[in-house]
């Protein structure tokens, strides 16, 4: 949501424009200032996207204010509204980019048109395509990160994506989703344990770019870094033919074996790191990427020696028959479950949980070590969130560690699912209670400070929220705009003071935050249908 600040030293103009634009469905947060100095104070406290300002004001005129805006918020659009027809003012205003000039006697339609134009300019500025064109120098880095994220998702997700070909095109991945792929895994060993995370990351990227440069002579390949900091290469023969002939595949395997030896040599001499390579000796379908990758990691783990000069060829497909009972990435998936719980994504949580718990419905043996590990791993995660959210009374977390009370695996995992469902309810209830508590604090503050600055920016400072979120949260909780609530509270207090008959009308207005009697009278009449004086006469007489 964009923010618009209206500035004019004539209060009736400022308030009137705020009412007009407030009634339009423009998705605007509207702020008011009655002088250039007041506007400047607000601009120092929060972002403003459009400033609608008079030019000719005392102390600080609109042109001086414009210079401050340019320094603080260069993307801000300015619309000058004035009755001043002096050419010098007009000339200075229209020379600045992002500035429009509207005469007061041109009427509201012309002013609304100028604000709409400013909104369109803001929208155009924020177009993603424009931002991408301005960031061409970073494109290769961004593309590398996106491709890595995508393949890590494929390897560690529950199910492979359906539209891989479309994803490859969008991410500029040079591989063919309709053809099988060769997989290689490189494990980097760094003798310098003092290297930082970024040092290790830069080393892995250097190996990736070097390998792609060498492999492109005969293959189409892509290297990505997995979650453990190791390198995965996805490789296809160069060309557009169908599946490779056995002799062609054998020749390419030889080429890869020799090329990876060169890469290992370069790692030792230039980067001072070692690298063990496990290379699949056969092509795999993309649907088996997860299984083949898992087998490659097993082979790496059980290698003979340190493997730093070894390129090990393995029949990964043949050796990687799927095990329906064993979850290949249990810990990683439990971490994903925790992320879904933390973010309140209940449907995603349940989908992954049921996929992981599927073997429990097929297994009758109570002593199964894998299901025991899976149960307690998930149970510990749920207990952690129960403790963190102080929800033991609602959840009863002590039962999570009592696997023996469940008669079957199916019953045990249904208990975990029910517990997770209760945690999601607690999370949602907690959000609602915290939101209600924050709004209660704001209402108390308003009641105790009716004669003070109760602008949206000031109230947002009180609870350390951004103004737009506070405005939306208040409307969501109380069903009324914050500004309307403040006016209602002020009018209620005014009625009480007027009934007492101890103060003059102007003094009552000042005590509840209205600078001028005219402003107080206008708001009071809007809410009650009578002026303050008329109300006093009706209630107390005389």
Describe this structure in words.
- The chain is an alpha/beta fold and 542 residues long.
- It is 57% helix and 11% strand.
- The protein contains 23 helices and ten strands.
- The chain has helices spanning 11-22, 36-43, 62-72, 87-95, 108-125, 128-134, 139-156, 164-170, 197-215, 246-271, 289-301, 316-319, 330-343, 346-357, 369-388, 392-395, 409-448, 456-463, 467-478, 482-500, 505-511, 517-528, 532-540, and strands at residues 2-7, 28-33, 50-53, 77-82, 99-103, 182-189, 219-225, 231-237, 274-280, 311-314.
- The strands form two sheets. Strands 2-1-3-4-5 form a five-stranded parallel beta sheet, with helices on both faces. The protein has a five-stranded mixed beta sheet with strand order 7-8-6-9-10, with helices on both faces.
- α1 (11-22) links the parallel β1 (2-7) and β2.
- α2 packs parallel to α3, α14 runs antiparallel to α17 (409-448) and α21 (505-511) crosses α22.
- The longest helix has 40 residues, at 409-448.
- The protein is elongated, with a radius of gyration of 34 Å.
- The two termini are 49 Å apart.
Number of helices: 23
What value does the Rg take, in angstroms?
A: 34 Å
Low-confidence stretches: 128-139, 319-325
Number of strands: 10
Shape, principal axes of CA atoms: elongated
Strand order, main sheet: write it out: 2-1-3-4-5
Distance between the termini: 49 Å
Report the sheet-strand fraction: 5-15%
The percent range for helix content is 55-70%
């Amino acid at each position: 949501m964009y923010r618009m600040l209206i500035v004019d030293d004539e209060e009736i103009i400022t308030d009137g424009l705020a009412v007009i634009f407030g009634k339009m469905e423009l998705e605007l947060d509207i702020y008011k200032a009655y002088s250039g100095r007041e506007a400047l104070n607000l601009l120092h406290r929060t972002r403003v996207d459009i400033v609608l300002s008079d030019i000719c004001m005392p102390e600080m005129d609109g042109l001086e204010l414009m210079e401050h805006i340019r320094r603080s918020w260069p993307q801000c659009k300015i619309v000058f509204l004035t009755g001043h027809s002096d050419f010098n003012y007009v000339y200075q205003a229209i020379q600045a980019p992002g500035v429009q000039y509207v005469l007061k006697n041109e009427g509201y339609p012309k002013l609304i048109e100028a604000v709409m134009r400013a909104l369109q300019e803001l929208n155009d500025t924020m177009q993603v395509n424009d931002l991408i064109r301005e960031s061409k120098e970073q494109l290769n880095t961004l593309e590398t990160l996106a491709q890595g994220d995508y393949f890590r998702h494929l390897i560690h997700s529950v199910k492979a994506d359906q539209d891989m070909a479309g994803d490859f095109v969008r991410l500029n991945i040079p591989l063919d989703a309709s053809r099988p792929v060769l997989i290689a895994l490189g494990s980097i060993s760094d003798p310098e344990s003092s290297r930082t995370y970024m040092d290790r990351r830069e080393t892995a990227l250097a190996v990736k770019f070097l390998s792609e440069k060498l492999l492109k002579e005969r293959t189409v390949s892509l290297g990505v870094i997995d979650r453990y900091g190791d390198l995965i290469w996805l490789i296809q023969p160069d060309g557009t033919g169908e599946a490779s002939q056995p002799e062609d595949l054998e020749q390419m395997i030889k080429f890869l074996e020799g090329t990876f030896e060169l890469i290992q040599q370069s790692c030792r001499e230039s980067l001072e790191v070692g690298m063990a390579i496990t290379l699949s000796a056969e092509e795999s379908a993309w649907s088996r990427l997860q299984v083949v990758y898992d087998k490659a990691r097993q082979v790496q783990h059980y290698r003979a020696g340190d493997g730093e000069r070894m390129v090990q060829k393995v029949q990964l497909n043949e050796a990687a028959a799927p095990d329906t009972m064993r979850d290949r990435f249990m810990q990683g998936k439990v971490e994903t479950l925790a992320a879904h719980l933390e973010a309140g994504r209940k449907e995603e949580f349940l989908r992954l949980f049921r996929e992981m718990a599927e073997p429990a419905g097929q297994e009758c043996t109570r002593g199964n070590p894998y299901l025991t590990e899976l149960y307690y791993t998930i149970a510990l995660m749920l207990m952690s969130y129960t403790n963190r959210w102080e929800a033991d009374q609602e959840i009863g977390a002590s039962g999570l560690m009592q696997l023996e009370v469940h008669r079957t695996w199916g019953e045990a995992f249904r208990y975990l699912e029910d517990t997770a469902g209760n945690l999601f309810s607690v999370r949602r209830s907690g959000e609602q209670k915290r939101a209600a508590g924050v709004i209660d604090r704001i209402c108390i503050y308003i009641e105790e400070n009716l004669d003070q600055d109760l602008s949206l920016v000031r109230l947002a400072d009180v609870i350390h929220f951004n103004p737009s979120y506070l405005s939306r949260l208040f409307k969501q909780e109380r069903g009324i705009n914050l500004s309307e609530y403040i006016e209602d509270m002020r009018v209620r207090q005014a009625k009480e003071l007027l009934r007492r008959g101890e103060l003059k009308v102007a003094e009552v207005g000042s005590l509840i935050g209205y600078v001028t009697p005219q402003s107080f009278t206008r708001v009071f009449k809007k809410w009650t249908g009578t002026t303050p004086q008329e109300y006093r006469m009706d209630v107390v007489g005389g």
